[in-house]
Predict the 3D structure of the following.
Amino acid sequence: MSSSSAFNDEKGGSSSVGEPEYGHDPASGGIFSSDYKRHDDLKEMLDSNKDSLKLEAMKRIVAMVARGKNASDLFPAVVKNVACKNIEVKKLVYVYLVRYAEEQQDLALLSISTFQRGLKDPNQLIRASALRVLSSIRVTIIVPIMMLAIKEAASDMSPYVRKTAAHAIPKLYSLDPEQKDQLIEVIEKLLADKTTLVAGSVVMAFEEVCPERIELIHKNYRKLCNLLIDVEEWGQVVIINMLTRYARTQFLNPNINESLLEEGGEKEFYASDDDEDDEEKKAEAAALAKRKPYVMDPDHRLLLRNTKPLLQSRNAAVVMAVAQLYFHLAPKAEVGVIAKALVRLLRSHSEVQYVVLQNVATMTIKRRGMFEPHLKSFYIRSTDPTQIKILKLEVLTNLASETNISTILREFQTYIKSMDKDFVAATIEAIGRCATNIGEVRDTCLNGLVQLLSNRDELVVAESVVVIKKLLQMQPEQHSEIIKHMAKLIDNIQVPMARASILWLIGEYCEHVPKIAPDVLRKMAKTFTNEEDIVKLQILNLAAKLYLTNSKQTKLLTQYVLNLAKYDQNYDIRDRARFIRQLIVPTDKSGALSKYAKKLFLALKPAPVLESPFKDRDHFQLGSLSHLLNTKAGGYQELPEWPDSAPDPSVRNVEVPEWSKCTSRKERKEKKVEKPFYSDSEGESGPTESADSESDSGSRSESDSEQTGSGSESEESVEESQSEEEEDEEEEKMKKKKKVDKSQPKKSESAESKIASEIQFLLSTSVAPTSSPQVTPVNNFLSSSLASDLEGLSLTDTVLAPTTIAPSASVRMYELLHRITGEGLGVEYCFNRQAFSPDPHMVAVQIHFTNNTSCETKNLHIEEPKLQSGMRIKEFPEIDMLPAGESVSVVMGIDFCDSTQAANFQLCTHTRKFFVSIQPPVGELMTPIFLTENEFKKEQTGHN
Amino acid sequence: MISQVFILSSQGDHLIYKDCILMHYSQENSLDLYLKLVGITILLSVQCPQRNKNLNFIHVRHSGLYWVVSTKDNPSPFTIIEFLNRLAALTKDYCGSLSEKSVRMNFALIYELLDEMVDYGYIQTTSTDILKNFIQTEAVTSKPFSLFDLSNVGLFGAETQQSKVAPSAAASRPIVASHGEQVRKNEIFVDVVERLSVVIGSNGVLMKADVEGEIRVKCYLPTCSEMRIGLNEEFSIGKSQLRGYGAAVRVDECSFHQAVKLDEFDTYRILKVCPSQGEQTLMQYQLSDELPCAPPFRLFPTVEKDYGSRLLIFLKLRCDLPPKSVAINVSVTVPVPKGSLSLSQELSSPEQSAELQPRSKAVLWTIPRFPGGAQLSAVFKVTLGFNAHGLYSVRSASLLEVGPISMSFELPKYTCTGLQVRFLRLSPTQPGLSQRWVRYVTHSDSYTIRI
């Protein structure tokens, strides 16, 4: 510090060092110093030995760069410091280098060796930053060095360095596109990376370098879906956009079989939206016989399910990305979930509001029902900026329907009083649009608009006249009163557009106002010369029309007007006058056309269509810049259309790892990871509890043929079944109960019915065991150790672990016998929450034995249960032998009689007996059942 | 993909300029063209991406500065807007306060930040925790922090009325303490900010009421320790759920920052979070259509026509806050007919003022301080002038032109929903001094009374 101040004194500096005044040009030491000299002092500082001086100089240089001043002539002096030990200085030198390296290529090469050394540094941050700067130096000579560095970094240990490598790929690609093939190899390698840090960056690189190589995604698709929630937010946006495109090419349109999906009957809501639907349904009915019902690809479902929780993100970009994904990919019935999230964004900055409203406006045209419940959120606030007000108005107009029109109109009424004139004009137009769209309110609107004609504000009146003109065109016969009223207004209204509109209206419907029309023409003839061009043209039109219908009264007037127009300054008006004269005034030479004059002028004109300016926006992908601008921005990629037939879904399959084979025991036909009901972390999952976790049909295909043979019907119900329930009200239990009974196997039925009468039922009070032996039981057993395995593997596996906000924790394990007290035999148990097939009243308890001794344990079985009255135990089959170091899982059933009393029994081996007890937590005394999606929804709506 | 980033002063001067992808044409070419096209006055209105040749510009406005990004291709506009908002927030965190001056003093720092956040046009990270590892430059603050400034603690979140409330210097300093500073203040600020938007019908019926609230934390703690914020135990979300015996504090919807741990929220209403340095919003909540208390202000207007060309407006304003609370910076805007020429008023105390704003044609009545339970009245006589057709006579139409009255105000130490922070604990307790501040304020977002 002291030295630098001394330096400044020397220079007679204008600023003291303690308080550098960057407000002025930081480098201008003195008034008289020339450019050349000015940089001299900085060079001197950079050459000094003191870090503090160097730092000061670098700060000033970077400040110059930041302000856009040219500092390139300092390059040699700066580049010398690239090897500086001081990290602060080094950092700023890097910043400078990245900016100017391209301009000073030869000198920049001097620094390369420093970065190459940096790439070998043990510190990951230094490695990453060296790679970053190296790849930012845009000098073609070093392309091979960059390529090498990227390849090396792509297999670095540190995910942060790998992420930087991914970022470097598009940089190198833009520098030298010929490296594409090699770069794609690196991308392919990085795509297989399992860390969340890398995922976002590599997809960015993929999108930049080779978006057409969609096949690279196949193998990583499921991994990306599962990782998505943990990727940092900017990466999420990129991945979601990429996956949207991917899904459009790989899956079938979920709305293709509308009628089939909507069998549930609750969705007529959306059905009325599109006219296409009806046609589609008709076609559907015909094709129904031969076409297979649409079944959503499990991978498609996976994508929808894993993106849903992201609607809660605090990053608006992520929310919008998910919203557009749902809008473009989800079945119509499910799109509704995004409405709430988008409405939430409306509470954000006005910039965000603006973009959200643009998107909402487009969506409301296609899917009105989606936003109808949120109507109030679009009411205008006095503090909104005009552009936002107008967009909200647009949304409100799109949402107007027979049911809510009265509320909306009342709201509009108050808007007209606003001080913001543009907004008032837009409101009046919106009223006009509501009136055209909804027949019932047309008269009300018209009357309201006519009242506005007496408003003091000319703009309001003018806008009303224009809108009334459009409305009247639809049914002029009934409204001659209004036309008369408007004829009177011509004396007062000065706005040319409004005057023109009135004149046109009177001319068009002159037979409805036969007495007034000639009089208006008379007045207009008087003021003709002072009118605006647009009004003059309409006066000519009016004269011509009157001449044709009522020539007796208006012949002279018309002649007079035509003569005036003949000498007008504007050639359009002169032309028009000549044209009209030839057409309507019969002369000797008049051609054949004049016979048709009446038809020409008084032809029936089609009513104008008042439609939303957002009507044609939806061909742009929502949430993109192109959509916002309504023109193609550079690099815009069209969202591909759905394919007609689904490409092979098996391309996404990843090799089945070992564990899934070894577990295919008798009972474990289905592998499935379940979300815990009452795990400790439930609080966190709060907002996304509705996220459905469905049974995995991807692995279903691997299950035994015995099951798939049980008919397509049951297969479908498995597909749709929900494995997650949050409600445990009585009535729901009953339903569950019945369901479960249905899926009981036949063999246990007789045993069960014997006891059924004597015992109190576990979960419900009245249940009759039903027999439906055709349906194969779906038992989803999964040992807890496997569950934890699954978690680790779920990134690559075919098993689709439901990744929601809640961590997919495995079922909790309780200790039954510690391995020390058990003399080497460790026993744990857990409630696996599956149906216990031999007896529906029993709770399935999974017991996991581990033999930690060096010799084998034999004859593991249960003895002497000491139970409370009513409680029953179904023992597991005796385990003959458990070799040393191995472990095994079995399932036993316990009927706890709805109590939390412990079940005590003895666990016996061939040498010893251990007293153990199992006490159930309250939350585990439940029966799992399967519900179809529709049933589940019905339950949910019933309770909430 | 971002091509360039600019920070402009309110006059349109370039403060910061960064080329993310070298564009081969100088900034003057692109930005000046943009300014010429858009014009600084249009810049002032709500932004939207402006299109200009191949470049698209998107900008937002924060603290009187324009944050502009240009892009050549087709990114999601949300990404850009969100990025700019984060950039502004981070600049504020790192420089202490956000103003032209602070940006000017910290060119190097902000440039370094930008360099870390955007790599070749791709957003790398915006998280303070990660950036902390990379940023080397220290912030230069305009004035040293002193405790005396705490006497008029304002809210760092209070953007709407910032000019009227002195921003608290306590909460506006860089999050990273400079190495020279001897005493590192371990402070944490928790603000509960609510914005109220109300529409009252002409018959005095509450037509619409919305409260948007948030809990913000600004943390200066160097090490990450867990913080527990206890809210009212009666706090309930949604209509069905009711808790406790007292008057429930109810909100419709609640969303949390992703770092907030909610495992104790369901039972004890405790938010657990390890705040990272800087400012962040922990929780946002909304309450619509229903206020737990009466709306803070009731207005009883009467509009009459006087003889000739005068309009008489009687306003009686009642503050329905509890007696201990006070509203400050209250202003009432009464739109009057377009032809209004002059105003004469009768107000109840000298500290109030009223004027006719010639441009917007509205009477602005300002009340600096308005205690709860008090009632004020005012009479405005508006003289109407001439129009093109001659003298304005007071017709019934001009009575209609007295539009909906809007109010703006600020209620310190008061929340409409009744949300309170019961306690604020840090665990493990910080060694040395750690100060915790909890502040409350309610702002009017849009308070409209129709007549």
In short: The beta strands of chain A are 814-817, 825-835, 843-851, 857-866, 872-874, 879-882, 887-895, 903-908, 913-918. The longest strand of chain A covers residues 825-835. Chain A touches chain B through 95 residues (CB under 8 Å).
